[in-house]
Amino acid sequence: MSTSIRAVVFDLDGTLLDTAPDFVVVVNKLRQQEGLAPLNETVIRNCVSNGARALITLAFGLNEGDAGFETLRQRLLDLYLEHLGEDSAPFDGIGELLIFLRQQQLSWGIATNKPECYTTPLLKALNINADCVICPDHVANSKPHPESMHLAASLLCCNAEEIIYVGDHARDIECGRDAGCPTIAAAYGYIDHPDQAKQWNATHTVDHAREIIPIVQSYIDKLSSSI
């Protein structure tokens, strides 16, 4: 366990924010436009972290490169911009966690594969102000490459080893681990089967955001006891 933690960085969709309700609306709206019945909400939720391409495959049985795939993907993204942030909200326990981090004088940030054109207006709509926000627009290599966490360390004026990275996808844990960060797998996120998170070799796994506070506290306590 690291003896010095100065920041916590979160993935966005499925970790910090529950954005699935907006995607449920737009996926089923697009299906309706195509004369198809709505999909089950849970099925859509579990696919959100895999991105717009995966949602098109889920909703229409098409793969990238198939005729009509890219047109449907762009229509989905246009619909998403129209409904951005309408029903999204922080996961239960995130508000308390962010207050705790501020009380402990720890920085916090976001490292997401969600493009900036969607991330920035979403955070603005929900009045969320992180110390750093890293999107794929800001790096040459997006997650699972560790570049996002190295950039986060630079922006937060610390070493990657001093950042806990929290994510709900295997690529998040790989990104953090390869950067040298302690990692937390958010099994409450958009995962087909929560037990999958235990297979990612994260430093910790949680079933609820409130479980992150004692983990962070344990790092703080270890640092205090070593001084």
**Annotation field: number of helices:** 9
What letter string, H or E per element, gives the SSE order?
Answer: EEHHHHEHEHEHEHEEH
Radius of gyration: 18 Å
Provide the low-confidence segments as ranges: none
Count of DSSP strands: 8
Which strand order does the major sheet show?
5-4-1-6-7-8
Shape: elongated
* Mean pLDDT over the full residue set: 94
Strand residue content: 5-15%
Helix content: 40-55%
Please state the structural category.
alpha/beta
The major β-sheet equals: 6 strands, parallel
Q: Span from first to last CA?
A: 15 Å
Structural description of this entry:
- It is a single chain.
- This protein has 9 helices and 8 strands.
- With 227 residues, the chain is of the alpha/beta class.
- The chain has a 6-stranded parallel beta sheet, sandwiched between helices.
- β4, α6 and β5 form a beta-alpha-beta unit.
Keywords:
227 residues, alpha/beta, six-stranded parallel sheet
Sum this structure up briefly:
With 227 residues, this protein is α/β, with parallel strands linked by helices. It contains nine helices and eight strands.
List the helices and strands and how they pair.
Blueprint: E1 7-10, E2 17-18, H1 20-33, H2 41-45, H3 51-60, H4 69-83, E3 89-90, H5 94-103, E4 107-111, H6 116-125, E5 132-134, H7 147-155, E6 163-167, H8 170-179, E7 183-186, E8 204-206, H9 212-226
Parallel strand pairs: 1-4, 1-6, 4-5, 6-7, 7-8
Antiparallel strand pairs: 2-3
Helix pairs in contact: 1-4, 3-4
